[in-house]
Amino acid sequence: MSTLEEHVDVGVPIDTAWESLHRVDDYPRFLEGVRDARTEADGRAHLDVEAGGRAREFEAEVSDRAGERVLEWRTTGAPDLAGSLSLLPIDRNRTRVQARLEYDPGIVRETFGGPKGFAQANAIERLVRSDLEQFREYVERGR
Fold first, then answer.
1. What is the rounded average pLDDT for all residues in the chain?
2. Sheet containing 94-103: which strands, arranged edge to edge?
3. How far, in Å, CA of 56 to CA of 109, rounded?
4. CATH of 2-140, one of 3.40.50.2300, 3.60.15.10, 3.60.9.10, 3.30.530.20
5. What is the mean pLDDT of residues 104-130?
6. Three-state secondary structure call for residue 29
7. Phi and psi at residue 133, in whole multiples of 5°?
């Protein structure tokens, strides 16, 4: 498994960022390739994703540690992906959003296509950074 960690500072209070992360229906607004997202029963989310020219549907188990401001997720089928989003207050009006993604590079390439090795790691890193930047714009605009 490979692990990627990135962060972005957003100009909103931690409660605003936390509420925005829980609006699964809004994920297509800031997650590249997510065409549709919705909350399902039993702490699950369903996402329709297009990446590498391929359309896929994913189910993920989502849980949060509200007291710690950590949202964790794990796909329930292939590909095996997991991650978390942690929120840390910088001050009253700014929050750091830390993303952590765990993935098997071979499985990601097989599922979505794209480059191998270092080039793939760079592509995933750019995607996560871009998604975090888009999230910042989304929450700072007030949705």
1. 88
2. 2-10, 94-103, 82-91, 70-75, 54-65, 44-51, 34-40
3. 13
4. 3.30.530.20
5. 70
6. helix
7. -65, -40
